[in-house]
Amino acid sequence: MSGTGRYFGLQTDWYIDDRMDPEKSTEAACQYLKQLHTIFGNWELALAAYNSGPGTVRKAVRRSGYKKSFWEVYPHLPRETRAYVPQFIAITYAMNYAEQHNLLETAREVFPPFDTLTVAHHLHLGTLAKLTGTCLEDLQKLNPSVRHNIIPGNGKTYTVKIPLFAKATLDSNRVAILDSAMRAGKKESAVLMYASTPTQGTPTIYKVASGDVLGGIALRFKVSVNDLKAWNNLSTSRIYAGQKLYVYAPAQNITHTNNTQPTLLSPDTKTYIVQPGDTLWDISRKVPGLTVEKIKSLNNLKSNNLQPGQKLIVG
Prior knowledge:
It is globular and about 75 Å long. The protein is of the alpha+beta class. A hairpin with a 3-residue loop joins β7 and β8 (261-263). The chain has 15 helices and 10 strands. The strands form 5 sheets. It has a two-stranded antiparallel ribbon.
């Protein structure tokens, strides 16, 4: 998640997403897992918390009667997390005992030999690739955290990986090439960045409640899921209880209680809290005229999967 990444020092904005950098993101993931292990004292519970958030696992531990192992807490965890930890264990086993099961490596992606270039100014990778005779795709593979092929001129220092042969070409005419790459796309990138920045004024900060789904929140605020994901730099639709979301919705569409949390549902909106064992078919039979498809449409559900405690709009 972008918020967790920033907590561990990963830059996530319009220009750079360090979560895509295998070295930086792995280091951050290890730090996060170490912190979670300190909290739960158990690697399997730490993995569960890595997947669904420490708050979700704490709640599952409470519901289990404060059991200490993942398998004892298992029935109280979200369905995705119940699958995530066994899959992690299975993959770890496969990696360690691949040869015994005839799992052989047949191919490996090879990156071109590279050197590094340190920059503290705007740099257009497309222009750099063109003037050094390299493929833009190679620069993109070597620098996966760079979005839109632009290094921002924001006062920070960045390290750009560049193929060795391209670095030799760069060194032969360094001043002219860098000057061109520094000038190219500067105004265009600024326009694109500001165009992607919300202009609806001060955002409402919504704290995700247990059972919330991104589609339901978007529906209640009368915004799109894509807008919510863009405003909060989310790469997936997964959210967790306690997470804070920025919502740039028209002020007249949102009322507030005690000047803190927004009231998302109008008084005549009917909701239903999912109970253990519930299916969409079961819920549809509880309300006259309600169908499975209508429930999915009202809550922007892409599948029939439900979680106990999830809040659904049913009318």
